[in-house]
Specification:
Blueprint: H1 5-11, H2 14-60, H3 64-73, H4 78-88, E1 91-95, E2 105-110, E3 119-124
Antiparallel strand pairs: 1-2, 2-3
């Protein structure tokens, strides 16, 4: 004895059909959200691929103002959003006066941040 989907639908009551409608609507909403997130992530990755070489060039030339201005231009890039968020939260990016072991770099000093501690980190310029 085989039963098709149409036979199954015809044998359902109104409550069961309502559950099927709700589940189909939820599945469609889930698929739409997944596609929108995939689309947004794909655009962000493309913009990050454009942003990263330019940002790296500014860092190699030690032009932090230009790097920060460039981050404002690329609104969807992951790296640009992190840098812009860091500037908004009070992280001051300054050039290190004493490089470690002959490497060039900059010191990231978190001084005006909402938390009370001061943290120093070394970022190497490759």
């Amino acid at each position: 004895m085989s039963m098709s989907l149409i036979d199954l639908w015809n044998s359902m009551g109104w409550f069961a059909r309502g559950i099927v409608f709700v589940m189909v609507a939820m599945s469609m909403a889930s698929l739409g959200i997944s596609l929108a997130k995939w689309w947004r992530l794909n655009r962000a990755q493309k913009e990050t691929a454009k942003f990263a070489p330019e940002f790296s060039r500014f860092l190699q030339e030690e032009q932090m103002e230009g790097a920060i201005a460039l981050a404002g231009k690329y609104k969807k890039s992951h790296i640009a959003r992190v840098l812009t968020g860091a500037r908004r939260s009070g992280i001051a990016l300054t050039r290190s006066s004493v490089p470690d072991s002959g490497t060039r770099g900059m010191t990231v000093r978190i001084s005006d941040a909402p938390w009370p501690r001061i943290v120093n980190a070394r970022v190497a310029i490759v």
